[in-house]
Amino acid sequence: MNKIHLIPYRIEEITTVAPQVPEGVRMIKAPEVWERAGSGKNNVIAILDTGCQSDHPDLEDRIIAGRNFTPDYNHDEANFEDNNGHGTHVAGTAAAALREDSIAGVAPEAQLLILKVLDAEGSGDYARIIEGIHHAIDWMGPNGEKTTVISMSLGGPDDVPELHEAIKRAVNEGIPVVCAAGNEGDNSPQTDELGYPGAYKEVIQVGAVDFNRKIASFSNTNDEIDLVAPGVNIHSAYLEGKYASLSGTSMATPHVSGALALIKNIAEKEFARKLTEAELYAQLVRRTVPLGYPKTAEGNGLLELDALERLEYLLAEPNASLDLDNEGGV
Question: Does the annotation count 236 as an active-site position?
Fold first, then answer.
């Protein structure tokens, strides 16, 4: 059986500084809902990746727990440090703390469960991924915390039944599973490119767009794409306390994972009860805006967290105009 790997990605730039609110976070309108959503507080995002720099200034206060499932560090389960860079970047996009002289993730008060399932080369056995998923489902924090969402920016060519079963178990337990679509796209929505676990119907499969709302040429297309998010030149945390701009559907995925923490807080307050995975997915889809591409490329459209509020404004103000093709909003 083939190994499972990081979704290929591009490192555009490594710097010692980054915008406090990265453009991707702004593009999905996360700051507009932070107050209503408590910035994602009381949610735990499980990041299954290459680990995370645990003392990165923007992440150290967000990490609630972690575990290493790889042979790295002599199989030390307690050492989930990132020796690749990818995992730290993904974690930062999902939930970097919004502090002075730091960057913000999509849900800056959510917590991170770091599960290192890929080694320094970005490779791992399917068994490790499966074990990591089950760990995320069963994990309980020191104060009874449970995993809110599982985020996986990885993929492989094989449809492995045990992997599929693990994902179905997570969904049945009420945990959305967010996966990168993959970067093998040929810039044509007429041809399918499939990677697993992204292609499973139970997961939320995320494609990538650039800041001009154009589908990234590398983004996989298939009939299981659920939505798209920023995935080109994405600023986030990186190794050695630095920052980097990376491109790939790997970068689009944590935008959606962080967004689900925000949506959960907003929607469960409105409904005054815990929502099922299907209900959380429905609330996510309601916060998308079609871009005009085939569904195989964009699914339900671009994630915009304030889309419902903008629509409500339009309905309440008959003379108002709602420009969905303009980043400026209403």
Answer: no
- φ, ψ for residue 6, nearest 5 deg: -55, 145
Name the active-site residue from 250, 255, 257, 306. 250
Catalytic entry in 86, 89, 235, 255: 86
Q: Tell me the sheet residues that pair with 237.
A: 243
User: Which pLDDT score, from 0 to 100, does residue 76 have?
Assistant: 97
Strand order in the sheet with 204-209: 63-68, 111-116, 44-49, 149-152, 177-180, 204-209, 225-230, 302-303, 288-289
Which position among 49, 58, 119, 125 bears the catalytic label? 49
For 111, the token pair is 């917590």
Q: Domains of the chain, with CATH numbers?
A: 4-303 (3.40.50.200)
d(CA 197, CA 19): 32
How far is the C-alpha of 176 from the C-alpha of 206, rounded, in Å? 13
Q: CA triplet 108, 116, 102: central angle to 5 degrees?
A: 25
d(CA 59, CA 85): 13
CB 204 within 8 A of CB 226: yes
pTM, whole model, 2 decimals?
A: 0.92
Whether 135 is catalytic: no
Mean pLDDT by 10 residues, the chain (330 residues): 73 80 97 97 98 97 98 97 97 92 93 97 94 98 97 93 98 97 82 89 97 96 96 96 95 98 97 96 97 96 91 62 42
Assess whether 255 carries a catalytic annotation.
no
